[in-house]
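Figure-free illustration: sequence to structure, shown twice.
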Amino acid sequence: MKKYLKEIEIAGMLLIGIGLIIAHTAGYDYGAWPCGCGILLLLVSYLYKAFHWKEYEAENRQNIWIIVICILIIFIQFLIIKT
C-alpha cells in the first residue's frame, strides 16, 4: 500500500478534476460521480497516512490545513449561493 499512495492521490485528484469539468459542461448530476470517487480515493490515502502518523507527520499537517481551507471555501460558497 505504501508504494501506491502517490498513485492513489494522483488518481483521486484527476478524478476530481474530471468531475469538475464534467459538472460544468454536462451538468452536476454527471460530474458528481467522478468527484465522489476521487474524494474517496483521497480519503483512503489520508486515512492510511493518519494511522501511520510518525512516518507521515509533515504531510499530515499539510493535509489537515488543505482540508480546513477546502471546508472554508465550501462554506463560503454555500453562503454566496444562499444570498
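We now fold a second protein in the same way, so the two outputs can be compared directly.
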Amino acid sequence: MGANSTSPIINININIEQIKNRLLSPRLRLKEKGEIFEMKKDKIAIDPFRSSGLKIYETKSYQKIQVIKIDKEIVEKILELDNNDLILACKTKSDYKGSYIIKIYRLKNGSYELLQIIDNDNDGYEKKIKNSCNFIIRYKVINYKINDLIKLTQNKFISISDLGFKIYSLSNKDETNSEYTLCFNYKNESHDRINYIYPINENELIIIYFITNYTFFGNNYFDIEKYDIKNNKMIKNIYHKKNYKYGNSILLKKKYLIIIISGKIIIFDVIKGEKKLVSSLPGNNDKYASIGNLYNWESINDNIFLLVKDEQFFFIQYDDSRNKIYIIGSFQLDIKNKNTQVDKFYNYNKKIEIKKFKYKNEFYNYENEFINFY
C-alpha cells in the first residue's frame, strides 16, 4: 500500500539547507536546567529539575516573565487551553509512591494565579494486578498515574491515566471565576495502558492502547480504536498488532494518523477509520538503529512531517490524493557533547538529541547546564 519516493510534489515551502545550517549553531543558549513544557506559540515553561518554582519564558528573546511557586509537588505535564487557563498535572511528594493532583491557574493581569485544585482525579479507578514471569516479582501492579493532559474544544481537557481518562469542562463559561467540573469518566478495563488520545471532533476520539503480557508465552498487543464519547462506546478497532516495536505518532490535517510500528510508517484515515498506507522507514534500518521520532511541520497545506532518526532528518510529504509519501529533503547532523567525559568502557562522546517544538518549526536540546534554542 502506498510508496516511498524521493520525487518532490507541489507546494514545498521549506528550505532544507537553511534548516541544516540553523541546527549547526544555537541562536540562543539559556543557562537553565530542567524539562521544557511547551505552551502556546509565545511561551514555554521550564521546571528546573523539579525544584520549587515553575519558570515561564516568552520565546522571542527567552526572557523570564513569571515564576509559579511549587512547594510540595513535582510538575509532570502542562497544558494551556484556548482561554489561557494553565493546567498542571502534579505528583505530590507526600509519600514514597506519590499521588497526583491537577492544579489550574488563571491568567489575571498578565500573571497566572491559582484557581482550583482537583485532588480526586483518581476516584473511581481501581489498580490492576497481573501475573508476572519474574521469579522475584510475581505480580505486576498497574496503579493510577496521570500520563498526559489533552486539550479539547470549548475549553475542555482530558486527563489520561493507564486506568482510564476523564474529561473536565468549565461549570459556567460566562463567569470569571468559573471552575472545572467532571463531565465524562471512562474506565480502561480492556488494556494495560492508554498511550495517547487524539480528539477528532467534539464527540469522537482516537485511543492508542497497549497490553503487556508478563508471562513467558504471552504476546504484547497494540490497538488503535475509534471511540464515541456521546454514546460511551467503541466505534471501531482500526488496527491490532502483536509483538510490536512502537514509535511515536502525529496527526496530519486533523485527519491522518501517522505512526511508526515495527519499522514501518503507517498512515490511517481516522475519519473513515481505515489504514491508508504502509511504507518502510528511510535511513539506517539495522537492528541497532533507533525507531525515530515523528514531528508535525507547519506548512501551507499541513501535509509535511519530519522524521528524526539516528541524527538523520527526513522531511516527508504525504500526497493524500495519490496516497503516496515523498522524501522532499534530508540531511545528516552529527552533534556531540564535547564537554562530556568519555566513558571508561567506550571511546565516544555523548550524542545530543535535538527536539522540535510542537507548535512551531524551531528546535532545542539540552547540553550540560544549558538549553540551546535553534
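Summary for the second example: The chain is about 0% helix and 50% strand.
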